[in-house]
Structures are given as C-alpha cells and as structure tokens.
Amino acid sequence: MDKKLDTAIFAGGCFWCMVQPFDTLPGIESVVAGYTGGHVAFPAYEEVKSGKTGHTEAVKITFDPSLMSYEQLLGYYWQVTDPTDAMGQFQDRGDNYRPVIFYNSPAQKAAAEKSKAELAASGRFDQPIVTKIEKAGPFYVAEDYHQEFYKKNPERYAQEEAGGREQFIKEHWGK
C-alpha cells in the first residue's frame, strides 16, 4: 500500500537553519530549501538575496501525515522561529527572511490560524505574534549547494545557529 504524503511550506529566516529542525523528525520524507512568494519565475539565490524578486527563503517539507500531522509540524515551526519579528529572523534581516506559514489547502490555513491564535493566547511572548499566513504559490528549489547545508558545512551551520536562534529557543521554549 502506498503511503499518502503531504507538504508544508514554512519560512523563518535563512533556509539553511530551517532544514535541520524538521529533517530529523519522524514521518519526514524530505526537507528542501527554496524560494517562494515572489514575482520572478525560477529565481537564483543572488536575485532573492538582493530583495528585488519578492521571494522569501523557505523550506518545503514532504511528510507522512499518519506519522507526523500538520498540526505537529506547526508546533515545531513555532519553536524554531521568532513569531514576534516581521523583519527577518535573528541575524538574518530583510523581507526575504520573514516568518511565513504558506498553506496548501483550506485545512492547512485553518490549522495555521488556530495554532497562531493559541500561541498568541498562551502568554509565552510579550509582543504580538506577527508571523504571516499566506496561500502557497510556486516553490522554486534552491541551488544544490543550499540543500542539506547543515550536513555539508557543519562548522558554518554552527556559526549561523550561534547567531541567535539557539539562544532564542532556550529562552522561550527551555530546550
């Protein structure tokens, strides 16, 4: 029997730092770094980095919902992003690093909105939750050297993580 897979698209700063937190979870088939939300077809990294294409660095997660639900993925998403910072994430600044949940269906939209409302009501943050929830558009896979960056370049990846994400997670989630 073939398993039925689904996808989730999340943006939360540099895509290098968004792959690893999801890559090791049960039920995850793949996590691909790429670009979405812009107005240029098939953008290159340098174009996206310039801010002129309107794209956001994001990850496309292919998962088995019988092993990992979309709601569970949302729970992990909130733990690895700063939902109070609309202008980037940690040391990554600019619109191409903004936090966004890109939904693929009405069910994903409803789940994301519910999850965001629950986080806002939790009192965990003393600032408003500003993460956007937007309809998914075309997702363009980033260049090969961006894929699985944390495995290929562990020292550089560690420097990126030291830029604030790791400390943020400890402060807000105790991990």
From TrEMBL:
Family according to the record: Belongs to the MsrA Met sulfoxide reductase family.
Domain Peptide methionine sulphoxide reductase MsrA: residue ranges: 7-158
Catalytic machinery residues: C14
Short name of any one Pfam family annotated for the protein: PMSR
Catalyzed chemical reaction(s): [thioredoxin]-disulfide + L-methionine + H2O = L-methionine (S)-S-oxide + [thioredoxin]-dithiol; L-methionyl-[protein] + [thioredoxin]-disulfide + H2O = L-methionyl-(S)-S-oxide-[protein] + [thioredoxin]-dithiol
Protein name per UniProt: Peptide methionine sulfoxide reductase MsrA
EC number of the protein: 1.8.4.11
Gene that encodes the chain: msrA
Classification via Gene3D superfamilies: Peptide methionine sulphoxide reductase MsrA (3.30.1060.10)
Key words, A-Z: Oxidoreductase
PANTHER family: PEPTIDE METHIONINE SULFOXIDE REDUCTASE (PTHR43774), PEPTIDE METHIONINE SULFOXIDE REDUCTASE MSRA 2 (PTHR43774:SF1)
InterPro entries, per the entry: Met_Sox_Rdtase_MsrA_dom (IPR002569), Met_Sox_Rdtase_MsrA_sf (IPR036509)
UniProt organism field: Lactobacillus porci
Functional description taken from the UniProt entry: Has an important function as a repair enzyme for proteins that have been inactivated by oxidation. Catalyzes the reversible oxidation-reduction of methionine sulfoxide in proteins to methionine.
GO molecular function: L-methionine:thioredoxin-disulfide S-oxidoreductase activity; peptide-methionine (S)-S-oxide reductase activity
